[in-house]
Predict the structure.
Amino acid sequence: MPKTGEILKKYRSKRNFDVTSEPSGGGPKRKSSKTALAYVIQKHQASQLHYDFRLEWNGVLLSWAIPKGPSLDPSVKRLAAAVEDHPIEYGSFEGVIPEGEYGGGTVMLWDQGTWTPEDPDVDAALRNGELKFTLNGKKLKGSWVLVRTKGGFGGSSKPQWLLIKHRDRYASTEDILAAEPRSVSSNRLMANIARDSSGDVAKAAKADPPSSSRSRAS
Ligand code: MN
């Protein structure tokens, strides 16, 4: 596993911090042994809408981009493409990445909380491509698994994983993405976040449920 410094170098090399308000990373480290591990999902309307799923591990946020977002239904498998690790501070970012910059578009803190690995050896679970964990977020809770399907074995393509809900009392057929479209930190919709940060409101609004834009207009 690459060192945190190398990860931040790669993260920073893709961004111009004079232009974007995303954190540059490298702030004070958390004492991971005594502090609960952070979990966050950021809804991100870039060129394509996706949900960035992030789990704190070894001083960084392991990150997957989920085009269709998480599902509470254990019969539904959601594609989760592994993307570069992010600095821990990124987990509190909500706002607008300027158009033309890497990942340009609106970012919402869609869910946040903590996670607990269900296997004691997380690094082995990641290597073996099957990570079981419990989420304690505001929207997502209970037992989940990430299973690697293909890619990422020395080639240039990023590994692809599937995010699947385990059967427990938090499993449901409810469409959580439609039922809970607002930010957990600010209660804003995507269009509100874009408007507040001089972003592309029309583009951001495409990621909000149709009913919410109707209620805004009325
Ligand atoms: Mn993203």
Observations:
- The helical segments are 4-13, 122-128, 176-179, 190-196, 201-205, 210-217.
- DSSP finds six helices and nine strands in the chain.
- The two ends are 52 Å apart (CA to CA).
- Residues 33-217 form one domain.
